Amino acid sequence: MSKKTLRILHTNDLHSQFENWPSVTALLKEKKEEAVNAGEEVLLFDIGDHADRVHPMTEGLHGKGNVSLLNDLNYDAVTIGNNEGMTFAKQELDELYVTANFPVILSNLYDENGKRPKWCKPYDIITTPSGLKVGIAGVTVPFYLFYETLGWKIIDPFESIAETVTELKGKTDLLICLSHLGLFDDEKMAEQFPEFDLILGAHTHHVLESGQNQKGTWINQSGRSGKFIGDVRLSYERSENGIECISTSISSVPVDHEVKDLQTVERLEQLTNLAKEKLSREVTTLSKPLEISWFEESEFAKLLAETLKEWCDADVGMVNAGVLLDRLSEGPVTYEDLHKICPHPINPATVMISGEKLLELIRQANKKEMVEYKLRGFGFRGKILGTLVFDDIIIDTNASYIQERDVYVQGKPLDRHKEYKLATVDMFTFGHLYPIISSIEEKRYFMPELLRDILAWKLKRMDH
Q: What dotted CATH number matches 3-275?
């Protein structure tokens, strides 16, 4: 018997923060060279949310620039996150990995007809030069209604994992899962499926400095935005009874952002310029600027609330002013301009809300703590939530305490007992921001169009 070491490097949740990618690349290359010089075999994985349409390069190239960057580093396998799965149209995701020189491992996503997409497979078995058989499984977080709206069928990841583990039984020496589920579900997976030797995680952006051992299965996750990479060393011996793991060393290695891979800097510049060319198409020409304020109702926010109402064929519209990061100047408006001022992967949504709840929502709407709330997550890429702006709702703002008689909906006094169709942003339909909305069961999402897409639609229709 002779001791051998398998080195596993991994990244997760870059979210297209490409300012950090040249440094990530430099560190990965350094670690790969270090491993090869030490006689170690090396595997490199990405655990999803590499692509995020907040960046103009990802937006303009529909994520294919991200795939090109992964190709440059010769990744051995990846899985997808919710940003790849849910912010691209179905056709865009179907075409995203056409040029990939790595397999996409994903077992819980299907077409509507129940067939697995051509661009992914439920598992892979990588045989290293020394003959070690490494089984790779992959799953992503199942936002059921969102995937269904986009034309996909997503299933319980634990159901698909059970099938994969059964299928791979006796076929591998090591079993690894690429999991974009989050740390809590990774811990649950380790307990339910002790067959896994290692779970590489993502989605919840935890930094596990030295990994985590859960009932004998190691888990690692390395933050977000290219601030860390994961580095795993598995030392093992082969005997007549198979592979025996001697030791496992895990770390999340901080990325030195002063050190950059110059080839990657140049590559990013090329890809970004190509994307900007594609985004330079003109949407419209404004005869006057559209002004925005995060702290009070403004013309631009009012326009977006109106656009939501029209796009969703709703009774009323509502949007938080903070989703518009800047004004639009007089003159030509391009798709790049719209992306700059509204970079969020946020979709329109509707809920059926009673007049009673709508009145309570209006009362909460402009509380100082909500207007100035520094929101992170939920697809929001801005700075503060901002004031709520309504369309087709008139409120007597002089009232010290807003009552039913102070609110007019579609020109008529608010009716506490009536159900209204409210068009708004999807982030209000889940989470803690406005429980009045998130607690409503009847919801509809409008996908794949994002807020900037419906803004483009509206601006083209306006007479300037």
A: 3.60.21.10
